Automatic annotation (TrEMBL):
Residues 105-338 form the Radical SAM core domain. GO terms for molecular function: 4 iron, 4 sulfur cluster binding; metal ion binding; rRNA (adenine(2503)-C2-)-methyltransferase activity; rRNA binding; tRNA (adenine(37)-C2)-methyltransferase activity; tRNA binding. [4Fe-4S] cluster binds at C119, C123, C126. InterPro entries: Aldolase_TIM, Methyltransferase_A, RlmN_N, RNA_MTrfase_RlmN, rRNA_lsu_MTrfase_RlmN/Cfr, rSAM, rSAM_sf. S-adenosyl-L-methionine binds at G169, E170, S201, S224, L225, H226, N300. One of its GO terms (cellular component) is cytoplasm. Keywords: 4Fe-4S, Cytoplasm, Disulfide bond, Iron, Iron-sulfur, Metal-binding, Methyltransferase, rRNA processing, S-adenosyl-L-methionine, Transferase, tRNA processing. Its EC number is 2.1.1.192. Its cofactor is [4Fe-4S] cluster. The keyword Nucleotide-binding does not apply. This is Probable dual-specificity RNA methyltransferase RlmN.
Amino acid sequence: MPLTTFTGAKPLIYSLTQDEMKEWLVSAGDKAFRAQQIFDWLYVKRVSSFEEMSNLSKELREKLADTFRMEPLKEITHQESQDGTIKFLFQLVDGHAIETVIMRHNYGNSICVTTQVGCRIGCTFCASTLGGLKRNLDAGEIVSQVLTAQRRLDAEGERVSHVVVMGIGEPFENFESLMAFLSVINDNRGLNIGARHITVSTSGIVPKIYEFAERGGQVNLAISLHAPNTELRSQLMPINRGFPLAKLMEACHHYINKTGRRISFEYGLFGGKNDQPEHAEELAELIGDMLCHVNLIPVNYVPERDYVRTPRNEIFQFKRILEEKGINVTIRREQGSDIAAACGQLRAQHAKETVG
């Protein structure tokens, strides 16, 4: 089972949804409406201490400080790409390190956040799983990544417009923290990031896809697919042995029928592994009757793995085959190719240097 969140310090104030904040205020003998004021201080004014919350009583500010912490994530290092992508390595209160990425697009600034310290899913092409899973993040630690990125963008007069939950870890293995995080960043009295501007990616935790269909609202769902048949997917993604492709497709159909929203399938192209014309034909057959979109991903080279990039002409051939079959498909724009862009690489480098 996944490890629990860190409990060796006061909880982060950022972990509380506005409803939970109201409950805490009432239990502390104060008024529920103060939750709106606190959210405004945290996420609109973006203060760094409870003392700055000047329209709250001194007694309430002291109670907040006694009960919660709000220290920012500690930056260990960051890398900035020529295309404007910024990859941060942050230290948590217990010393673990996580990654967060700011990506610049023509439609705005997207933040890629992490939900776990490490990962146990074991995808054979991913650096995030190197070293295994250490623990889950609590909701506040996930929120803090967006808030810290927003503070960086404040200096440029810009804002976080989109969030992708595609960093280190499997979000659906940390489901309740994920749902609290989504509530906080979507709150219109807080960061006010629209649900349709948020995407959660899963490797295929089938029971949670059903639950997300019930609770996810308008948040987008992406599935890391990476193979058109169950045998190949099991080679690339061991999770397929626990949740086989047929069951995953059933869950995807349920999600679409329940929500009326399309699913994005992420398909990394690995040279000679899953990128041949027959794979494209098979993929089109697998998902052709779904309300969906395919995001083809030219892989970033990971030194610890032996996968190579699919040649450019073969990427476009794969895309063309899908389009001819009526599949909506795009090729993900490469970002951060001149830095440690693949999930987990910067953290893995730091771990090596720390041990060394």
